[in-house]
Amino acid sequence: MMTNKKESAVDLGGLSRRSFLVGTVAGTLVMAFSSGLSVLAAPAQEALEQKLFSPTIWFQIEANGKVVVNITKAEMGQHVGTALARVIADELGASWEDVSIVHVDTDPKWGVMITGGSWSVNTSFKTLSQAGAAGRKSLIEAAAKLKGVEPALCDTENSYVLTPNGNISFAEVVQKSTVDRTFSPDELSVLTLKPKGKHTLVAADRKLTQ
Q1: 41 lies in a domain?
Q2: For the Aldehyde oxidase/xanthine dehydrogenase second molybdopterin binding domain, which residue ranges apply (predicted)?
Q3: Range of 46's domain?
Q4: pLDDT, tens digit, for every residue of 123-135?
């Protein structure tokens, strides 16, 4: 498993101290960091719709179930976008075939955008893992409500939420649910991440067509 020794030595733009919002906006499940703790007074969906966040959006799930990951590191021939997208997709439980990436423009809202010295994955792994886990938890909660089951009995795999009452695709969850979830920094820090043995994409020998 990748270590994060360099992460503690690098200022990530305060991202670890910001709340994480998950909400459906115009039929799309959006994941974003809030601009401050004051946003906790409003529902996540309202905050997203009113743009009460500096749009540091790591990824979104579109109505067709496609997962779009925003890459903040420069491509230097090593397919860093593929590596970072795998981290989110693995935690989320997304099918690799549903994942695409977008290299974003330079902007302070993305935090530190240094590329070099093998820092890209090291400094992003924990943040992206937590973002993926938050997305997974939000999808499971929404799917469990749709299926009338307990979230603890559900899991995600290949862009589906697996439930005792039948599986439901990410696309269907996004289309049929109003996801409204806010994770505080403390809640993000204790989210259960997948153990190394359950990773199917991280370190896998597969490239992403950009």
Answers
A1: yes
A2: 50-180
A3: 7-139+177-189
A4: 678 888 988 999 9
